[in-house]
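Hi F.,

I've been meaning to write this up properly since the lab meeting, where we talked about keeping a consistent format for the predictions we share between groups. The idea is simple: the sequence comes first, exactly as it goes in, then the structure tokens exactly as they come out, then a line or two of notes. No screenshots and no reformatting. I'm using this chain as the first example so we have something concrete to point to.
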Amino acid sequence: MTEDSDNRIFFALWPDQTTRDALVKVQERWLRLGRLAATSPRGPRLMRPDSFHLTLAFVGPAAPDHVRHCSDLLARLVREASIEDEHGLDCVLDRPINFGNAATIAAADTPPALIGLREFLSNNLHLLSIEFDSKPFHPHVTLVRNARRPAHPVRNQASDDKVVFKPRAIGLYAASGEGGLRRYEAIAEFPLS
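Output, unedited:
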């Protein structure tokens, strides 16, 4: 992977099957109830269930040595960050919000364990002089691209869209391709259950 490549790397939690099934139901409900507005002439594009993830830190295009450093950092995080109890990483996604041209479901409250993982990654990426997206951390899962949710939420929407995100793995992943051809590949991954 080179800086010129289309590959972008990121640290993320991958959900278990129950979480993926619940996220698909939210996607379907949003479409069925007309809760999406297209932002592209091609219309909304549903994320595939096998691509659902919760990003902890987005690095972006990375040189091979940065990929190695990030892979080593992930192994250190798993050893040092006390994430044996995967239930501490469970996150309630109950807030439909827009990020750019994507309709997402986000957490109103971030569990302390997730904040700890993000801080560990942020601090160590800074120490390694690896640039990453350092905007404030808002745990979310993208459900639909090329679409936005209406500005005014539907009554009782939060309770309709509540999903408990239970991670099955933490990893360093590469995203490549464009549009509907985007693929996510594990560079390094550790099971959590």
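Notes:
The domain at 8-191 is CATH 3.90.1140.10 (Cyclic Phosphodiesterase; Chain: A,).
DSSP finds four helices and twelve strands in the chain.

If this format works for you, I'll send the rest the same way.

G.
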